[in-house]
Amino acid sequence: MKWKMQHIEPNKLPAFTLFESVIAITIITVLIGIGTMIYGNLMHSEKPLSYYQAQAEIELKLQELKMNQLFVHQSFDYENYEIEQNISFYKGNKKLYLVTYTARTGGKELLVENHLIPNNLNE
Predict the structure, then answer these.
(1) Pick among 1.20.58, 2.40.160, 2.60.40, 2.20.25: CATH of 49-122
(2) What is this structure's pTM?
(3) Contacts of 80 (CB under 8 A, 6+ apart)
(4) Beta pairing partners, 108
(5) Given 1, 4, 25, 88, which is the most exposed site by the fewest CB atoms within 10 A?
(6) What is the pLDDT of residues 88-123, one digit of tens each?
């Protein structure tokens, strides 16, 4: 009888280890699936990274324009996008400038921002 108990005990251990392995593989598979779905959604997001880079650069250019008061048309080329700065009087009012920033990448328009800046030189 002792021989049977000793013989059965070692056989139970590998089956239990196999069961644990199957559970672990299932958990890992589910986590990989969730990670792949999240990554896929990020890669197919509506706005590319260059959109956010251009938005930050436009904010810097606007602050620079307000400080320097140099109201001229300019174009800025960057690695992934280009920004065009257009200046005009707002509805013919000589006391307000309308500054339009247009960001493009590969001929596709990413972002258009309009800002009003007072003309302090024409007071």
Answers:
(1) 2.20.25
(2) 0.60
(3) 49, 50, 53, 105
(4) 105
(5) 1
(6) 988 888 888 899 999 998 888 888 999 998 887 655
